[in-house]
Amino acid sequence: MSKRLTKKKVALFLKREKYFKEFVNQNDLVYSDFKQSFANKRVGLLVKSYLNILGISDITINTENHWEVLNFINLSSYYFYYHYTKKLSSKKLTQILNTIRLTAKKHSFTKLESNYEKELLKILKRDYQITFTEKQIQKYFNYHEIYNYVANAFCRAFQKEKKQQIYDYAYWYILHAYTRKYLREKQQNNIWYKLFFLELISSQKFIQAISDFSPELFNILIIRNNKILSSRESQRKVEDWWKNH
């Protein structure tokens, strides 16, 4: 990792609350909604991932060039958290979503467009004969808009030949995190195995994207995300279950 991006510097970026506070206040949101400790612990993952990618790429890190992206990623992380946990009113959630849309348009976080939710559905059907009802699709595959915005924010600082790789990584990584942290909670067996394969494929995709971009970053992320990657043993058990049902 670049010497310019140490763990201490990452921590300092995450603590620079005044920039995010200004952003929240400028958009007429309630800052106290973004100070809840139970939410705060969950939303730093995307920001840390973005900073790690910049560090590996030897791109100079400074607030002038990157804070608007960091603010956007941070806000989007809160949106994901509150949307899936239902710990914020629908009115406030809509306000956050509208701010995300306006900010994405303002900073052109819309240039690349690859709908990997649709691709994932095709892979599940083709390779595993797994299909979802329309109701399930609306519930689990209805977030392309936000995935696309955040993935565009991730890749903005990179040159043409690297943009698509970082876009792919960010999109699949967010989709994977969503599946891992929320979709598998309190699910019945008839949907659990489907979500397992969803998680498995999305993890393979984001690993492939980041390994294509940088073998060094690939190794770092594998070490850091070791606990959330599915083991061969758990994969074997689910595949056996699938064959016998």
Automatic annotation (TrEMBL):
Q: Which domain of life is it from?
A: Bacteria
The name of this protein is: Uncharacterized protein
This chain's source organism reads Mycoplasma putrefaciens (strain ATCC 15718 / NCTC 10155 / C30 KS-1 / KS-1)
